[in-house]
Amino acid sequence: MSEDIKLFFYRSARILVHFVRAQKKRIYRKIVCPFLAALPVIAPFLRAQMTERWFHDKAVRFMSKNVFTSEKQQKEFFSSLATEDLLSAQSVFSALGKIQKEKIRNILDPRKKTVALFFASGAYRENTGTIAERLRAKGYNVLILIGEICNDQHERREHVYYGGNDIINGMDFIDVLLEISGTAEKLTRAKRVYFPHDIYDSPLGNVINREGLAKHMAECDYLFLPSRIVLDRCGNMILNARRKFPEFSRKNVCLIPGGYIKLDKNLEYFEQYNQDTKTIIYAPTVSKERMGGMGSVTSLAYGDQIIKALLDNFPDYKIVFRPHPHDLHTALVKTIREQYDDNPRFIFDNNQSSYMKHYAASALLITDMSGTAYTYAFTTLQPVLFFSHDEKETKRRFGEFKYFEDREKIGRVAQTIGEMVHYAKSLLAAQDEWTAKIEQHRNSLIYNIGKAEDYFIDNFEYIAEAKKHPDWVYI
Prior knowledge:
alpha/beta, Rossmann fold, eight-stranded mixed β-sheet, six-stranded parallel β-sheet, 21 helices, about 50% helix, about 10% strand
């Protein structure tokens, strides 16, 4: 079956699935909820059960701390909801969102512009450094909005609110939205600034995924980009999206040669906590089940063999298994963890927000196509070993990406478990040579190394006031 036919069926299946899900939600909300609420025998029981369920929901509890001053006030809120609304998550979050919106509006200074950072998931929250605090110090209203409750340090910062379940799209007081993961396409009033989370031009899924990303970038006003390679790739993706979808040609997009804030923070951490310890990290990208069409690249299906080979052939090294945050709770990751948990040299890293503790103590990273490969190399100046179990297919499909073309500028590519062991030994034996090579490559590509956050803060007025910057690229 040709690639075009596969993509046709994949695209059609996605459209059908989205349609069915939307109809199920609509039927549940419009028909099932009112019907159950009208049953005099069942309704009181359902009401009590759903009220208890909402009291224990992580997102509801997080919002309640911001919008209610007491538990009594929270109970009065749920008592005021109709039974059919209690049965619908959309209705509950919509009602809470309206209260939260007014609470936020009341604390904003109307004389100042309002900036919001949006973290749709638990991943990539460190990518904006201390931008929120520094913009607040410059006199802006600044909010942090989250779409997933992770109980991490970012949720303990000042002025953090819940923006998930479509709540963010109702916040019409936002002037500038910084998007790290996720999007808020209905905030037409806000200037949207997108921070790609990869330092290189990672393929980011199949053609459908890349098409969706291109549309997203074409809808934004600014892209804060880490490297020359990413700037070129994003510019081409936006132009291609406009050719295919003329509606995205209605406004300019500004490409900012800004740098990679996460790399700068990594370098600071590494300078302070670098340890010369014998540790090898295995960090695969998202599994093929979640990436659709990326089976020739992703390596998690080989994770068991990879970890076993590392434990067997490198007895003096600790082996850290760091799955992608989106795979943390999958059956495959759970199986691998349970198989090796009793081995004292096996470490399972499930920290979604930060990886630097183990990166700073490691000598080698093994991955497949994860964007963390170049971030790791440019932070630690240690080599990377890419496991490519179907290199021929990988090159055929993704050879145009500099990510794949440049792999051997920071390490080696192994196609079998045996090659992986061989190359790992050779890379560990020549670390000084690789350090010099990687540093030279890094310095030739990345914008504003060590100063990316300063660059953003110093030039933010050009975004807030929509002024043209002489060094930025407008397409």
